[in-house]
Each structure stands twice: as structure tokens, then as C-alpha cells.
Amino acid sequence: MEQKERLSFCKKCKNRQFDPNRGIVCGLTQQKADFDNGCVNFIQDPASVDDFSLAEKADVAEQEVVSISEEILENLKRYQNFGYALVGGMLAVLISAVLWALITVSIKYQIGYMAIGVGFLVGFAVRFFGIGFERKFGILGGFLALLGCLLGNLFGYVGLSAEQMGN
User: In sequence order, what are the residues at sequence separation of 6 or more whose Cβ sits closer than 8 angstroms to the Cβ of residue 153?
Assistant: First the structure.
């Protein structure tokens, strides 16, 4: 039995104690768990939950994702469309860059947090229009988000310059 399995017993035992240097130890022996088939001093703690712990739930969720069949994966890949992702992402780049410039010109100050909004909008558009989950869609989203930030800066500077020249 491995230490992880032993600790699953100890976490539910009434005799457990926490030692800051060693972690969970037995309250009777003051030692870490070293049993093989089960602890003879085990007493179920009524306060412990019989359900999975969060770590066990995460392990199960990870196993579920890994166990997707090839048939389902191929079916999902059929609906992906890189061209639609590119068009939708470019549209989001233009919209977000214009919004960035309008906000920058209207308040006469450039807000750095606008980049987060650009990244969110472009990433959502690439995912929505392309229905993609492969790495190339993420790379496209990152590249287009960077392009949106650069265009937003450029449009903002052009707007501020035009306003300065108009005065």
C-alpha cells in the first residue's frame, strides 16, 4: 500500500493529528502511517465526508477527459473550421482595436487593462466561430490578440495625434 492510500484512511480517522513538520500523523503513535492492509486503530470520524475529496474528484475528472474515444474525437474534429476562426478572430481584432482607440482618445489616457479585454474578446471569437479545440486555434487566438493590442495602440495614437493637430 502506498503512502497516498494510507493517507486516505488517515484523513477519515478520528485519531488523526496534524504535525506542521511531518503532515498528518496518528494521534496514538505520533508516527506517520505505516500499515499495509488497514489500520487496527482506525475509528471513522463522523465529521469526515464519505464522498470523494477534492483531489480525488480532480483525479477522476482527469481520467474522464483522457478516456475520450477516438471516434468521438474525430467527430468533434469534423466540426472545427480554421477559416471561420480566422475570420471571426479578425473581426474581433478590428472591433476591439477600435474600442481601445475610442476609449483612449475619449479619456486621453491609455489603460493597460484593455489588453485583457482584447485577449478575452479575440479568444472567445476564435473559439466560437472556429469551434476549435486543437493547439492551432489557441496559437491563432494569441497571435490575433497581440495584433489587436498593437492595432489598438496604433489607432489610439492616430486619434490622439489627430486631436492634437485639430487644436
Answer: 100, 110
Q: The dihedral of CA 147, 153, 154, 156: what is its sign?
A: positive
How many other β-carbons are positioned within 10 Å of the β-carbon of residue 33? 20
- 124 burial (CB, 10 Å; 0-12 / 13-18 / 19+) is middle
Q: Which cell numbers hold the place of 95?
A: 472591433
* DSSP 8-state code for residue 12: T
Q: In the chain, where does DSSP find H-type helix?
A: 3-10, 54-66, 70-78, 82-107, 114-130, 135-166
Give pLDDT, residue 157: 95
Name residue, grid cell 484593455: 114
Residues near 136 by beta carbon (within 8 Å), at least 6 away in sequence:
82
Predicted TM-score of the model (pTM): 0.59
Q: Is 61 exposed, middle or buried (0-12, 13-18, 19+ CB in 10 A)?
A: exposed
Torsion, CA 121, CA 125, CA 131, CA 132, rounded to 10: -60
Mean pLDDT, consecutive 10-residue stretches, the chain (167 aa), reads 76 82 82 79 74 56 64 86 96 97 93 93 96 93 97 95 88
